[in-house]
## 1
Amino acid sequence: MKVIIVGCGKIGATLTARMAREGHDVIVIDNVPAVVKEISEQYDVIGFCGNATSYDSLTEAGVAGCDLFIAVTGSDEFNMLSCFVARKIGAKHTVARIRNAEYNNESFHFMKDQLELSMSVNPELMMAQAILHILKLPSAAKVDTFSDRRQEMVEVVIKQGSPLNGMTLSDIRKKYPGKYLVTVIRHADSVSIPTGNAVLHEGDHVAIISAAAETHRILKMLGLVQKQVRDVMILGAGTTACYLAKHLTAAGNSVKLIEKDPKRCEEVCESLSGVTVICGDCMHQDLLTEEGLERMDAVVALTGRDEENILISFYAMSQGVGKVVSKVNRDELHTLSEKLGLDSILSPRIIISDVLARYARALENSEGSQMESLYSLMNGAAEALEFNVLPDFPYANIPLRDITFESGTLLAGITRGNACIIPDGNDVILPGDRVVVVAAGISVYDLEDIFHRSQRTQP
Amino acid sequence: MNHRMIFFTTGSVILTEAGLLLLPLLVSLIYREDCALAFLITIGITLAVGCAVCLATRPKDRTLFSKEGLVIVALAWVAVSFFGALPFVISREIPVFIDAFFETVSGFTTTGASVLTDVEAMSHGMLFWRSFTHWVGGMGVLVFVMAITARAPERSIHILRAEMPGPVVDKLVPRARNTAKILYVIYIVMTAVQVVFLLAGGMSLFDSLLHAFGTAGTGGFGIKADSVASYSPYLQWVIAVFMLLFGVNFNLYYLILIRKFTSALRSTEFWVYLGIVIASAALICRNIFSLCSGFAEALRLSFFQVSSIMTTTGFSTTDFNVWPTFSKTILLILMLIGGCAGSTAGGFKVSRVVILFKSIVGRLRRVLHPRTVTVVKMDGKRVDDETLSGVHAYLSVYALTAILITLLISLESAPAFDIETNLSAVISCFNNIGPGLGAVGPMSSFAAYSGFSKFVLSVAMLLGRLEIYPLLLTCLPSTWLKK
């Protein structure tokens, strides 16, 4: 598929890497020659230097035949105009990054229709939602939701002294029966889909799927539950922080926001009610102590600098804060800080690239199924995907025990109507189901990819 | 430096060569020649070495940077030349290793300089292999490997860039692997078309294939003692036109293929290239008119020689050693210019000449009007400063290298050659042309040079084909040290 990406900022670069890895033909457009040069040397893509809102540049870059046009520059207006022109020239699908709250209100559908946008992405809002999911289940390092929040996949870390430490999965299942499934284990650097004999060790990351209504109870049963979050301190008052504060106060949490820039503090104060805004440098430990850091249930580090976020997070952990969430943008720092002991590290770049990779894969889906969502698990080493099963699905009504699956894949959950099923050999996939699949080491582009090759011709 | 990846890639190139050697093996089996055994033994050795290298160096990390790209290209080319020389030595058709190495390097670098004194005595299999190396080397060994392997490493643009000649190398399509494929498809189709044209002129299939290989790679190994002089005027015209076509930047053909005719015709380099060919042919035609039987012959001889030398092919239809000095000087200048960037031709490249010329004009204008602002433009776009200084730097390295090689060749003891011979031999090898002037003219060979000089000239050919930097950097200790 031919994908054109406009803007080589942080998000643009991550997207480019992801799309090239997914096997698409990627063309990158930016107006800074040095940036274009660097990115086209780093990845297997063509760089194009020019103004992505001008008809001539877009035509020359080959927009006419492109399947997916993504504009992710820092300016909403530029992105919209660029998508509009591209769409008129002949791009099949256009996606714009639109983050200004003034565009993301009721009038949004009007704009979207008029500009013929296929989708818009708002990294800050998505990031805030992801943090919100984590704060609801503080024992999880990461939470991904499926089927309109009917199913949840939580990533947890086995801590020292956990009763699960040293147990095999089949023992765990005997001791703690319930409707859940351990889908992926990361031990040291190897990520795998476990069998019943797999043993859990201290420090392992484990992904567990269950019905959303049951998640809390199951985590409690497994001894993984922490105190519910009530008091939250947010450091840095960027757009993400504002979205997050708004949602948290609406849910009844008490929120304290610390920001260095007095002007920004006033702006935030104006737009948010019920939030305590403190003007000060969050790198000052005195200030944090004064504002009661150690009494907080959760601390969310959302300043503009990765290094600050990491340091504050470590400080908060050392002060005994139960839940620490940090925003880390750069991949190399992400890996490093995870090794050093932070567990909830989020990056808007990864969230966005998951969303758009899903969108691109869904464009290529077969008749039998449609991809609904895609999440990276274990820092990108595995993926969880959700598919809608359509009436033409060739493997419908076959008991799962009669099907051989491709190695590295797992059918983790089925949602049928309101019921969540953790499938076993007697279950079948029916048209209309929503199916959650986990893949480690291979990429799944279509639901049929999880069935072993030998069966594909004679389903 | 990612050493494992470097040797692994080199190993896979060696394995690919084992595969390529199957073709001459087939030819020698068809003609029931003894040299089949030599090919079989070589394939065995090449397979064994290639497998050993690949297995011993399975890379964990597949990242490449431009440094790795350059070293891979240099090592791979030395390796294919080494293993490619084995059949000649094993079959005793070229018994001395350095001669065989020279011949193979000359083949892969599409030079076409030969140490053979009697080409017609060679077996069909060896002749086929010799010309086939031209064809493979023309577009590039690593480009070929990239086109056929399923998993090209990320950043493989660095390999493409190190092997493809020219000041700026760009991909045609986003994926490097698809770019390599497209290039080879264009290349194969054009070669096939030429074979058809040659067959139509009454040339045998074997001769047609070999001449098409030599033309496509702009190599120039002939299979007759007098190169292509004994073929009919029609065949000479076909070869002359195709040489010219293979000297054009392949991006142009891609643009034509995707029906972007206007952008294809906008290429400054193409028009300058064509202009130089026409002007030189006209001047030489006028100059040699008195030596020929008529206008048709003068035009044919001058056009063929100009096309052959300009594209650095090196076929010849006449002994231009006997031409007037003016004509010979023009040919010598054409040798230095070479073909277009992104083609199979060697030399300094027309695009570099154009950029240099334009920057000199700008420089002069600034002397006259110190406050004037000048920007070097090419095809309506600005040439960025890095490319510009790259071209200037390349000119210096190019000149220095040529001087150094000439000095080394002049060490040649008895029988010492005159300066014309030595100089033209170096220019001819360094620019991948083939024949020179004087004692290394089109009707003679390089056999008279000593082993040492042949080695130096082999290095010169590799330097010329890979545009100096890869080989130079590989020889620098700081490339390999961890500092």
## 2
Amino acid sequence: MTKATRPILLGIALSCLAAISTAQAKDQLILAIGGEPEQGFDPLLGWGQYGNPLFQSTLLSRGQDFAPQPELATKWSLSEDRLTWTLTLRGDARFADGTPVTADDVAYTFNTAAKAGGRADLSALAEATAIDEQTVTLRLHAPRITFIDQLLTLGIVPHAERENGYSEQYGRHPLGSGPYQLVEWQEGEQLIVERNPYFYGPTPDFERLVFLFTGEDATLSAAHAGQVDIAAIPPALAANVPTSMQRVIMESVDNRGILFPTQPDNGEHAASGAPIGNDVTADPAIRQAINLAVDRDTLVEVALHGFGRPAFGPADGLPWSSDEERIDAPNLAQAKGLLDAAGWELHDDGLRYKEGLPARFRLTYPSSDTTRQLLAEVSAEMVRPLGIEMQPTGRHWDDIQRHALHQDAILFGFGSHSPQEVYYLFHSQHAGNGYYNSGFYINSAVDAHLDAAQAAPSSEQANRHWQAAQWDGTTGYGLRGDASWAWLVNLEHVYFADTCLDVGELGVAPHGHGWPITANLLEWRWVCD
Amino acid sequence: MPSIAMRLGRLALVLLCVALVSFGLMMLSPIDPVDAYLGPQVAQVSPEQRALIAERWGFDAPPALQFGHWLRQLASGDLGWSHVYNQPVSEVIGQRFQRSIVLLAGAWLVSALLGFALGVMAGTKEGSPLDKMISTYAYLTVSTPAFWLAMLAVLLFSVTLGWAPTCCAGPAGVLDQDVTLATRLHHLVLPVTTLALLGIANITLHTRTRMLALMRSDIAIHAFAQGAGRFDVAWRHGLRHASLPAVTLAFASLGELFGGSILIEQVFAYPGLGQATVAAGLRSDIPLLLGIALFTALFVSIGNLVADTLYGVIDPRLTTGGS
């Protein structure tokens, strides 16, 4: 560089900072969607469980309909006893250093991840074995169809014993066979990645991606200053869209709902010391009446600023949840009828009583979460005309765990890309196990359906059993059955995106805002010149 | 003057106390380390995996054992492993402090020098328009929360006017090695200014009071009687006299500056030690939090030591014992 050009370049750098993103946007996309993995990009510790692993590729991928699609593995099968997965790898996959991905790497990845103690949960795996160069088997401890989640999310890393193999530093120097490779990670600030020339799939539209890891305020400021191409925005701030950007909405199963304790109060305590049971919510009539009375559309408007949709189950719209689980409009008359039939009598004070017991209980929410506070207070108002008094109570999570978890109705948020969550929430085996099934919901018919799902030969066939657990015609955990929850709303995740950016068909996001939008990153296009 | 050994002993004792108190606070904190580790995935893993996580990162050990283990590691020069960053604590602190030191040093220098200069100017002519302006300004800023000022600054200078970047220590999409010095400074201007404002007012007000006292003292009256002007007196007698509180405040405020930088770094998304401290606290990363606490305590102690030494240089009467 000559001396004369230096000041000019300097001037450009200083004055046109705002213009950088737009001037080079065809090659470089700037994303401010949060999701920085402080631990680094190590799949064995959980990188990639949430959205696109970017640097690594997975054995299978999720299609639009959530059915598994080939990725690194071209063929896969589950043995008759449901204990062994056998997968055949494609021959042309290479790590970003040009070396081929072999069955050894896959087996190493799974075996090491099982012991790593990170966010990737491979506790179901007994052992992974490389049969030959291209075939690998994964043996499980017990039948568990949801183990397929790990085939969908665990990025494959190179074996530790090869050149550039896995080591303690891998998180900061990831090497994988995914669409992009790491150029530089300025921790706490940004991540710069470029295309991996050896990627076996279609070439991504953008040569370079820049992920800014800014907080909500800084992200919003940057969006308004025109410095980013896509930004995750909290719904409360989404009304004012910057010029040359548009709102992009991603549907989600990031839901909020009321969990009811389903056991009566027998004076028992959980291992944590928290008392178990609530005599009011133990009556299914109360739970069903509340489900009928809440006006979910209004809740979406009031608590979510309109960015959401009504929720009727833990996984609305996903294949393991039935579309028939829904209440079209609140029906107070039917709800009152249910309560009358169950012996809850309306007294002069406007409250219902059954054998001297008032229909009154606490509705606890984590006090730091204003959305849940709104949901709690508004839904309490909605059921008040029934003669049921839900008392909204804000507590710290710790307080909830020690006192409220098993005796109060609680405003929870769930929502996952895996039906395993349904298993945790409703199987009696997980009753009182931390946040899972904290209402001690116990129904042997539901247990049987959930176990049948885990033992199914494929995830498609498992879906029928998952749905049956919700309602099998006579019972179920869902609305038509025991109404163990009153699901209220599904959030929508809001982004501001440049009008030139086409993000294609977005999937359904799980609980957690931000990175999940990258799931279909390879379909994103720049539509302006 | 106490011997070096005595001072070091005292310092070690202070550090041990800091570590013990921080550790105790972490133990009392209601945060479940496994929940904090899992973050949004808190309800996605099996009970077996939770147990594995607790075992791998040492969350399940009794507090006394955890602290003992940490002390033993420290004795062998190892600050431990941060589970939030999956990196040795010393590396986390080293990397982040490199960024923070620029911000801190810049803000510290600006606030000390500017604060002192303003204080001397205001104190020299009590009641003058200049004094009133400076005092008003100082009273206003001393009662303004720094993070609020920072948010206003971002809104005005970055979003509305577009003069300064909205965040970070460098521009988006530019490799670290390609960032020019000018760009770095450009990114530093707003955070440094807002952080400096935190310290300026304090130093100004104290210096001003000292100057006022001097101007009313016998020394000043004597000098006036000999025909010296106010600025003459301020220059010859005032500077040294008024610099004692300024030095004390400047070095004592190092701790405050650290605290302030945590908030400022959050607002400007500036990746310094402040962000790491917040992450360590909220996510129960005990080795990292203890490491940062020790490091900060050491930093502040050294600041005080320097101030102590400077006193003797500025005012020889303050040298105790010895001669």
## 3
Amino acid sequence: MPAVTATTSIPATGGWSRRKLLAATAALGATAAAGLAPSRAATGAILTRAVPSTGEMLPVVGMGSWITFNVGADAALRKQRVEVLRTFFARGGTVVDSSPMYGTSEEVIGHCLERMDEVPSLFAASKVWTWFTASGESQMAESRRLWGVARFDLMQVHNLLNWEGHLETLMADKAAGRVRHIGITTSHGRRHDEFEAVMRNQPIDFVQFTYNILDREAESRLLPLAAERGLAVIVNRPFRRKGLFDRFARHPLPEWAGEIDCANWAQFFLKFIVSHPAVTCAIPATTRVDHMEENMGALHGRLPDAAMRARMVRYVEGL
Amino acid sequence: MLSFTAEVYFSLLARYNADIWPAQIPAGALALAVLVLAWRGRPASGGIIAAMLGAMWLWTGVIFHWFHFATISFTAPAIAALFAVQGLLLLWRGVARGKPAVASPPGLAGRVGAALATGALVLSPVLAELAGPGWRSAELVGVAPGATALLTVGLFIACDGRAPRYLLVVPLIWSAAAVAAAWFLDSPALMALPALTACGAMLALASVPERAGRTGAR
């Protein structure tokens, strides 16, 4: 399995103001327009972005596991998922995200990890999801057992469920070295006011929420706030599950998609997301190796600048 | 919001059917006995039928939803609780009260109810074979939700107003949720039984009992 060696870093946005963020978007575009971002063919480098609180570099495309890795005890489906995860790592992925809410997903991820010849670099992210503070520790211990990891790189409070109680536990765990980063999640645009309040007032490293080319509510408040507060951003539902493909895949990619090195719709949607300067990574989920290949292609080549991003939005909204 | 695909659900059903084998045989025999008792229409049978149905709902709630379905769905514990409540209500109604009885001789409602109840025994394996992944993944009566709910609602209709309407609450809630789930999963094979259950439950709620001339006890 090829090791991840070359990376192209995109500046982290920790502590930046909204104005700086906008400037960064323009600068990023200028870099892309100037052809300074390496193409996949030219260098094989992958696009990474720093976690603001620690400086750790993460590939801008990770992997989610909602639905896709919840395959129960089915041996054939588990075998397929092993290949999906193998492809993910082989193409330079590191961030894998799951939750105890996702049925057997954590167990299946552990099953797949056991079968990897080598895992170049896993950034293991899961969640705590229980009403009760007291049962949070045992749930996280069970998650570690299922994944087969000694500690998680990131533990998030799922959908803000009992976030007051769990964040207290997570802060103690982080201080004791039992987890490296902590965060909160939401999805489908839910509870953004409360989410924003936690972002403003709690010492977290990561936030995770929904953002895609059609669901852009996060652009107005959450993304600028994440940049201002120095929080890493994981984006879920980058394809609206598969809704974006259902709606747009029958249409041709615009010819100018080649200007940002997009060969398919998956890369078009993902590059829109990860080109936002406040985004650390997007976590598409898939059951198929060919789709994983497409997704991971977004780790390479040029990214859209602000003008191109606006053009991308206009194009899909006009279809 | 479902956390699994139809493919995974069918796989779970196949494994469940293998795990509980041969429990499907006594469950099917129990369902057949329920149909025979219902068709005979003796007043004393009402309690026995309700108790038998109660046992099926309890099994499905505890064994299927709690121990099997819960491995892939975070909603399963709540559904398990609903099924347990329905099972206990039926047991209470059947054992403690000895009621209700089915209508005898059967009127139109009785025939519709009998057709639905009979369908509960045979539709699932047929649908699984023709429109689904094969008979091994069938939701069989007495041990899986779809067929058990349809059998119950069919018999409720056959009671022609003699059964208390609160016994329809759980089947109605479950069938509405199951229809939505089948729609989300894009699976006609999973849609049929809950859709029939929902239609039957609404028909039962909307219908006026035909009590005149009936010999069944109330």
## 4
Amino acid sequence: MLGVIQEQHPDRAALFMQWKQMGWPILVDSLDLLGAEVVPQHIFIDEAGIVRAIGARMSDLEEFLSAPPAEATPAPKPSKPDLEALERAARSGKPSAILEFADALVMWGAPLDLDRAIESYTAAMRAGADVGSTNFRLGVAHRKRYESEFRMAGDFSKAIDHWAAALDADPNQYIWRRRIQQYGPRLDKPYPFYDWIAKARDEIRARGETPALILVEPGGAEIAQPSKELASVQSERAEPDADGRITRDPKNYVQVETIVAPSTDATQRAVRAHLVFRVNEKLKAHWNNEVEDMEVWLSLPEGWRADSRVQTASSPEVELSTEVREVEFELYSPPDAPPGETEIKGYALYYVCEDVDGVCMYLRRDISISVKVH
Amino acid sequence: MLLTFVTGWSGAMRTEADPLIRIGEPFPELVLPGMEDGDPRSITGYRGKKIILHMFASW
């Protein structure tokens, strides 16, 4: 038994394997180079490496296992590709060679190599590479860089855009669709993607084991339950700064990135907005956790709805901290909304300190979320 | 192994004009990172054994 996973985060699959006590070797195909369009899926391969069944059924197993062994020739030991040789080949300008180089950079390169991978995928697309799969891989590279120390502004947004472009090119591609739904609105989710993680950790600890480490903890959309209805909760609280009297963040002590994940079904008119807040490292800014939690309030245009007008990012139980804070909203456009971009306005209120011993302030940051209506 | 086989099934791979994996042909010689250690692995590296390949996601 061998496994191949198509997930963006193989460490989560490792935890799943540990939880289910599945011990066979797993290969990671986050770029979906094998072209899988559905999972789960079983493939039978004989001793000679010949594919005997795709989408195999339980009833096929006995016949496969009892078939006379095929004559096998020894396979070469797998090794990492020679990146320099692939780079030289990519200079030929052939889309396949450029893609091969980009894929190798994503799979085998250092995080800093993701810059060149993204450039190479873009060049491959210009050279005529397949629009769907190249966009999907570009999205994977952007999301991977977003989660690295070399993150660039807009990486997460670009990942979503490229995955959406990939799905637009091939709406039957289940793997690509799931990658968007992982971050998208609950209305569009077939299931909660990673809600099993807490239970898995509990059960693994109960066995006396240490759960496998997860590098990027899933939250928000990634663990949200699916919904069949538009969620709309009215806050009973009055808006705290309706008149805009709180001082605007004068130095960008807190920086915000806005990402909008669409539904893969345009008729749902739903998106999930991810707002990511980071304290400014250059100013040595810190969250001040001795006061109220950070809040984000929305002002919705006529006819628009949200699952909540206010969201809170809770503070850790330490005086000062620098963690990334994420807030998510689901937004629904009215049926008669004109096609095009609509700006949803809002603001964040937070307590932030300049350096560890510096001045602490209560500040406001205005936010604009651009939602595309189809 | 069999438990996974039973619960994991949900349909056949789509037939497209130029699929990478075809019945009767060698499985692609693609080198991928192993989940545990990131070391290079390939399905063809297991030649000589019957392979049940489980393509899945933890979600």
